[in-house]
């Protein structure tokens, strides 16, 4: 199996991909991979960042946004996704470190969208028995913006955030902005009107491997930065154990490959969206549109 992206996989090639955090991009050249292609990242003395791809004479497009360095192997939109909440002055930007995962980046995104595993994987944090039921919610492909959303999601959580003083019924809204970029908006313990925003920017390095870059935009003026990072990393590392044991490592797009339940309606919408967009990288099964 080739590790390089199919030239016709335009939904993946023409997307912006986060390839690291700006705070870790120094003057020394660093190397990473994107869609099977070796990249070299350099910051010039003037501060400009350049991304070079193996086998290409000209630098790749570069953007700096949401604490991350973004690039693309194709022809991306003018800028990476907009997160209006990120511009609110009282929110804290928390970059939670890059984590390697031996699983398809699409599997990592799908896991992020799944509430059913909360009581069993994130016990006494994001869920706990016997409150295991996922209430009915609404999932849809918003064709006007070409994104997948889920609304009216609720789940009882013993500790929804580091700053939470007690358990709470947490409201969730999920947003999938591109195949490897997803966000959730969840009830904030410190603000009754505005949600916390947690983003997961997944860098597909090979079909069955990726790097996850979690970023949070929080309303929390009390918690220490290191504690916020540790809290989120603990949750993600619990997920990594499950993800690396899933088979197949690639995400099946054939509707007959895995049997969904009512709780999986967001996953079903995500897979259908990927299939219609003819996404191949990190996927297995039929990838034809229609």
TrEMBL record:
Coiled-coil blocks: none
Residues of the Vanillate O-demethylase oxygenase-like C-terminal catalytic domain: 102-277
One Pfam family this sequence matches: VanA_C
Keywords associated with the record: Dioxygenase, Oxidoreductase
Molecular function terms, GO-annotated: dioxygenase activity
Protein name in UniProt: Aromatic ring-hydroxylating dioxygenase subunit alpha
Organism of derivation: Gluconacetobacter sacchari
């Amino acid at each position: 199996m080739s590790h390089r992206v199919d030239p016709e996989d335009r939904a993946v090639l023409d997307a912006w991909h986060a390839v690291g955090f700006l705070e870790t991009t120094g003057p020394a050249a660093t190397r990473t991979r994107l869609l099977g292609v070796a990249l070299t990242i350099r910051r010039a003395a003037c501060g400009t960042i350049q991304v070079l791809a193996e086998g290409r004479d000209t630098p790749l497009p570069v953007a700096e946004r949401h604490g991350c360095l973004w690039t693309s192997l194709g022809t991306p939109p003018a800028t990476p996704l907009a997160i209006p909440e990120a511009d609110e002055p009282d929110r804290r930007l928390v970059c939670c470190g890059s984590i390697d995962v031996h699983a398809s980046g699409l599997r990592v995104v799908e896991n992020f969208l799944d509430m059913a595993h909360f009581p069993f994987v994130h016990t006494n944090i994001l869920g706990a028995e016997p409150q295991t039921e996922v209430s009915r919610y609404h999932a849809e492909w918003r064709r006007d913006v070409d994104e997948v959303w889920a609304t009216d999601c609720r789940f009882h959580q013993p500790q929804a955030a580091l700053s939470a003083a007690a358990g709470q019924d947490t409201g969730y809204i999920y947003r999938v902005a591109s195949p490897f970029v997803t966000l959730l908006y969840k009830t904030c313990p410190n603000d009754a009107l505005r949600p916390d925003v947690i983003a997961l920017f997944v860098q597909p390095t090979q079909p069955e491997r990726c790097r996850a870059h979690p970023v949070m935009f929080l309303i929390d003026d009390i918690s220490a930065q290191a504690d916020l990072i540790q809290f989120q990393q603990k949750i993600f590392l619990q997920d990594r154990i499950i993800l690396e044991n899933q088979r197949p490592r690639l995400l099946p797009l054939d509707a007959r490959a895995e049997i969904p339940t009512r709780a999986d309606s967001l996953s079903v919408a995500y897979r259908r969206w990927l299939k219609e967009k003819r996404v191949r990288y990190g996927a297995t099964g039929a990838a034809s549109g229609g």
